[in-house]
Amino acid sequence: VRDRVVQLIEPLANAAQKEISVSDEQLAVLYNSGSDGGMREALAATAESERRQRQTLAGPHRDDLKLAINGMPAADFASEGQQRTIALALKLAQGEALKAEAGKTPVYLLDDIFGELDPTRRNALMDYLPTEAQKFITTTTVDWMVGEWEPWPLFEVSEGGVKRCLAE
């Protein structure tokens, strides 16, 4: 099932990565099974080592996602902005997959996501967010926003409450 989910979200995440990065960044999402094939065989093969080491060496808790940008491991070669874009691309792909599977648009909760993104990526993300989805976004500033943002109500929150509505 996990492999199928990765196959479903990879093209969606790759498309989001390209749009948000405003470049031809190729995102690859690879599923690494923690049981290398069948679970029964993996547990049998590691049983003796597990008893000696007193820890489980095979199983779904060992599953991993390998992420690559332009063929290079993202953990080693992606900039902070690229890593943040990858996380957002995966989140947006997950939302698209959920919508396709369940027929319902998710609510997006995006808390302080702009820190490592340059203004180009920030604005590209805002343009890429699904228009039909409800979104709650927090940020420390909106000085970087360009374009028409009339449909976006902006509120300034200070000392735990709404201080003023900046736009409606």
Write up this protein.
The chain has 168 residues and is α+β, with helices and mostly antiparallel strands. It is 43% helix and 20% strand. The chain has 5 helices and 7 strands. It has a 3-stranded antiparallel β-sheet with strand order 1-2-3. A two-stranded parallel sheet has the order 4-5. β4, α5 and β5 (135-138) form a beta-alpha-beta unit. α1 packs across α4. The protein is elongated, with a radius of gyration of 20 Å. It starts with a helix and ends with a strand.
Overview features:
168 residues, alpha+beta, 3-stranded antiparallel sheet, two-stranded parallel ribbon, 5 helices, 20% strand, elongated
User: How many beta-strand segments?
Assistant: 7
Tell me the strand percentage band.
15-25%
The ordered string of helix (H) and strand (E) elements is HEHEEHHEHEEE
Identify the overall geometry.
elongated
| CA radius of gyration | 20 Å
Spatial strand sequence of the major β-sheet: 1-2-3
The residue ranges in which pLDDT falls below 50 over 5 or more consecutive positions are none
The biggest beta sheet reads: 3 strands, antiparallel
The percentage helix is 40-55%
User: If helices are DSSP runs of H or I spanning 4 or more residues, what is the number of helices?
Assistant: 5
Distance between the termini: 43 Å
Q: What structural category do the secondary elements indicate?
A: alpha+beta
Secondary-structure topology with pairs:
Layout: H1 2-21, E1 27-32, H2 39-53, E2 64-69, E3 72-73, H3 74-77, H4 80-102, E4 108-111, H5 119-128, E5 135-138, E6 154-158, E7 161-167
Parallel strand pairs: 4-5
Antiparallel strand pairs: 1-2, 2-3, 6-7
Helix pairs in contact: 1-4, 1-5
